Amino acid sequence: MAGVALASAVARAGGTARVLDPQPPQPWPQTYGAWPDELPPGTPLERLWPDTRYTWDGGERLLGRAYALLDNAALLANLLDTPGWTGRWDGQSA
Questions:
Q1: Number of other residues whose CB lies within 10 A of the CB of residue 8
Q2: If both were cysteines, with which of 34, 44, 67, 94 could 88 make a disulfide (CB 3.0 to 4.6 Å apart)?
Q3: What is the pTM for the complete model shown?
Q4: CA–CA distance, 50 with 86 (Å, rounded to integer)
Q5: How many CA atoms does the CB half-sphere of 61 hold within 13 Å?
Q6: CA atoms of 66 and 37, how far apart (whole Å)
């Protein structure tokens, strides 16, 4: 998956790239979250919380910024749809 992300970034910057991998890329199984204001515009989100709370034994604090859960499947689809790069999986020619 990291190779697909790198190839997509190279293609968006005007270069060309090719990914060779024995298996087609799959969405990451991990759960990834981020501050939306630090993500590129159009990053697919599964969920957005408008205000984040930090809770600990001693209490709770509002952080005053949104937090997002990434949509891994949609993110992979966007990366694969980036024009300018090719992929080869399981010996298939690109």
A1: 22
A2: 94
A3: 0.73
A4: 37
A5: 5
A6: 8
Amino acid identity, position 53:
R
The pLDDT tens digits for 53-89 are 889 998 999 999 999 999 999 998 888 888 877 776 6
Q: What are the start-end ranges of the H helices in 25-82?
A: 72-80
Tens-place pLDDT, residues 17-57: 888 877 778 888 899 999 999 998 899 999 999 999 889 99
Tokens of 23: 């298996």
Question: Which residue has tokens 């949104």?
Answer: 66
Largest CA distance in the chain: 58
Better-predicted residue by pLDDT, 94 or 24 = 24
- DSSP labels, 4-33: HHHHHHHHHTT--EEEEESS-----SS--E
Identify whether the C-beta of residue 76 lies closer than 8 Å to the C-beta of residue 9.
no
